[in-house]
Amino acid sequence: MATISMTVNGKAVKRAVPDNTLLSEFLREHLRLTGTHVGCDTSQCGACVVHVDGRAIKSCTALAASLDGATVTTIEGLANGDLHPMQKAFNDNHGLQCGFCTPGMIMSGVDMVARYKAEGRELTEAAIRHELEGNICRCTGYHNIVKSIQQAAAEM
Amino acid sequence: MSDGIGARVKRKEDKRFITGKGKYTDDIRMENQAYAAFVRSPHAHAKVKGIDASAAEAMEGVVAVLTGAQLTGDGIGNLICGWAINSKDGSPMNMGPWSALATDRVRYVGDAVAVVIADSQKLARNAAEAVVVDYEELPAVAHADRALAKGAPQVHDNAPGNLIYDWGIGDDAATQAALKGSAHVTELHVTNNRLSPNPMEPRSAVATYDEAEDHYTLYTTSQNPHVARLVLSAFYNVAPEHKLRVIAPDVGGGFGSKIYIYPEEITCLWASMKTKRSVKWTSDRTEAFMTDAHGRDHITTAKMGFDKDGKITGFHVDTVANFGAYMSLFSSAVPTYLYATLLSGQYDIHNIYCNVRAVYTNTVPVDAYRGAGRPEACYLIERMMETAAREMGMDPAELRRRNFIQSFPHQTPVIMNYDSGDFPGNLDKALKAADIAGFPARKAEAAKRGKLRGIGYSCYIEACGIAPSAAVGSLGAGVGLWESAEVRVNPVGTIEILTGSHSHGQGHETTFAQIVSDRFGVPIDNVSIVHGDTDKVQMGMGTYGSRSGAVGMSAIVKAMDKVEAKVKKIAAHVLEASEDDIVIEGGEVKVAGTDRKMAWHEVGLAAYTAHNLPAGMEPGLKEGAFYDPVNFTFPAGAYIAEVEVDPDTGVTKIVQFTAADDFGTIINPNIVEGQVHGGVAQGIGQAILEQVVYDEGGQLLTGSYMDYAMPRADDVPFYTIEHNTTVCPNNPLGIKGCGEAGAIGAPPAVINAITDAIGTNDLQMPATPARVWAALNAARAPMAAE
Ligand code: FES
Ligand code: FES
């Protein structure tokens, strides 16, 4: 067992969990934050993307114990009060259908927009599609996801 | 009404999904919940000689290890296929036994032999590894053509030669004769690749047995919870319907794969009774590839004849369909009544014959996947048209035009009666939107960059709005395919719609509210949609086959008709007017031509206070209806793909994709276009990326996203979507359906474009870079030798 302290969505949490607990399990099963989804077992689909210390990572691929002391933001913690521009953009552009990939898409979208902004690079359509390499959606054909991220990039 | 029919309303359901508050089955946790892990066969075919669970049972946290012998001993029935198909000679299909947990023989990799119930998922999975199964391996067969070969391993004892049925439709002799007299005959040999549906949410089930009430509750990832309850009750003897509640909460996509009732749900229900614990099972992706029903997997040889003017004279088709190891719930209908009946395509063809042989193999069962039979038909016809046009030196658009059906209703030689459409109009719209005139310049520009640019068409038709109950009953269906709805107007005027349709991405909470808003003038926020729970919704057949609009909404309309009639009676009574003079407009119930009126909510209140109702009228304002369609609906369209092939690597880039669809009435264009986007992406996936691979011995080689190529964002372009609407004459809203079109129409357009680019027709799906490169170089080889 490992005792893990983290700041999750602005709140300090502390749990004793088995050593092999993945961050996705820690969030879903121990903290009951079920907005983070698990869609695969090979780190490919991105349904599980969260922000750890400001960077997007696949929570299914990180051991919770290795992130003791980290600051984690999940889809539940993205908005403070109003919707985040990325969340709003997904609603505005019909960027989701079944919603299962959506938390990961939104968390990846926020991360890519922030990174490109910080680096002063233009987030083109091609760049968005390339950046979404690790996020699979089976419903939308990506059209409206790309549009959503384009809109949010303009607003963020 | 701005929220009514045709409005681009933003989805009401989005809020919970974009904030992480969706409630999917795996998000549910019951008190005292245990976890199931299945012990699965690593062999494609083997005898089960013994199961030693003692080590697993001794592990800490293990509640029970349960086997097939116990399951059948408790009277749990075999899984069944619900659509009876007879062979040409009249003999019934050969359905082999399928137990939720195999007892004596396993028939595919992943076939479950036992289940471990434990306190945590990890414990259950570890203990499942510790169950020792004594297998005696048997020879296996994985591919349909091999299964029919002499001496092939036999999957089921009651299906000699692995043949499930040998079925035919149409006039064989007349079609053969027509081909003989043709000026030109095109012959094609095509495979329709085996696919894994891959909704992003893996299947999951949470079963609870309430001992005091002798009652079961199942949360599950289902497209049709009432069908699940019916089948679990009537065929698998889990519990009678009044003792079983099935809830399908938020469901993360289905595409057909969540229609069926799988061994895992049956086992969880039974195990919850055995262990007196809630039992949860959630598939991981590898398990999903191994156990979710696959789609397609046809091998077809076909001939199409043409007269000297390019008119089709006859179409002769011979198909072998791989069903996998067991007959899944609707498997038998897919390559017959959902495939062969669409072989007339958009064309006026007088002679069609299709023979279908369905075969067992040692692979996971195959059933309906988005489009189900219709993509296979469309792919064959549209590859045929394009290939024939090339062989005859004709413009492929012109060849299609010469053969388009122009007047409706149109009876095809293969059962279907098309009710409406505008096939030339669809094609014109697509050609214009795709800027066909500019193609030669784009091709020349691509050539300068060293790229081969090609263009391909596909004119698809599908049969949706599944389906008229008596008609499908006469064709062997074990169920009726109506839909039901209830409209409850509350005393304050807000409205609840209870529907048997199920939304797992389709946006019913928005579109269904729109038709209510359109009719009664209430804002969509005052309408809520209740679905997915057999305790709340009276009955339902669920969502598949693009039926929620054409059938599900029609049931709502019928219930609204009854509500409207009662509203008018109440208002006429209160306002002392004639019922015929009452109109409902802008949220008010008025006497036409006067200023006398009631607000919508005042009528609701009057119905429930019942202080002043017409003599003899029952209080309340709630009506239900069942709607049984009178015909299938026939969405149709024209798709154009434009591709660039890199001749050095064989990599294909889809550079442009244009869709012109006729879906009948459109309730919400955003949602309809979203359905096309998603369907087209799946079609592109089938065309160039996706393929389930079993080796000769039946080992699954594509068990993860590392091996099975899903379409990703940079595999697809922005799509251009056009609508060319003709209203469906056979249902109240004029809806045809839009859920499957993209997956049906896209594959042939893409392959026609690639073959145009590389100058050879000899290319099978998925057109991977290796295949494209090989085809290109095979086509070039004779030139090089010259
Ligand atoms: S669940 Fe993490 S990448 Fe798929
Ligand atoms: S919205 Fe369903 S997987 Fe993306």
UniProtKB/TrEMBL annotation, chain A:
Keyword annotations of the record: 2Fe-2S, Iron, Iron-sulfur, Metal-binding, Oxidoreductase
GO molecular function, one term: oxidoreductase activity
Superkingdom, taxonomy of origin: Bacteria
Cell wall biogenesis/degradation among keywords: no
Coiled-coil intervals: none
Organism annotation: Roseicyclus persicicus
InterPro entries membership: 2Fe-2S-bd, 2Fe-2S-bd_dom_sf, 2Fe-2S_ferredoxin-like_sf, 2Fe-2S_ferredoxin-type, Beta-grasp_dom_sf, Diverse_Oxidoreductases
Annotated protein name in UniProt: (2Fe-2S)-binding protein
Chain ranges of the 2Fe-2S ferredoxin-type domain: 2-78
UniProtKB/TrEMBL annotation, chain B:
InterPro entries linked: Ald_Oxase/Xan_DH_a/b (IPR000674), Ald_Oxase/Xan_DH_a/b_sf (IPR036856), Ald_Oxase/xanthine_DH-like (IPR016208), AldOxase/xan_DH_MoCoBD1 (IPR008274), AldOxase/xan_DH_MoCoBD2 (IPR046867), AldOxase/xan_DH_Mopterin-bd_sf (IPR037165)
SUPFAM superfamilies: CO dehydrogenase molybdoprotein N-domain-like, Molybdenum cofactor-binding domain
Stretches assigned to the Aldehyde oxidase/xanthine dehydrogenase a/b hammerhead domain: 19-139
SMART domains, alphabetized: Ald_Xan_dh_C
Gene3D superfamilies to which the protein is assigned, alphabetical: Aldehyde oxidase/xanthine dehydrogenase, a/b hammerhead (3.90.1170.50), Aldehyde oxidase/xanthine dehydrogenase, molybdopterin binding domain (3.30.365.10)
MF terms (GO), sorted A to Z: iron ion binding; oxidoreductase activity
PANTHER family assigned to the protein according to its UniProt record, in alphabetical order: ALDEHYDE OXIDASE 1-RELATED (PTHR11908:SF132), XANTHINE DEHYDROGENASE (PTHR11908)
Source species: Roseicyclus persicicus
Annotated keywords: Molybdenum, Oxidoreductase
Entry protein name: Xanthine dehydrogenase family protein molybdopterin-binding subunit
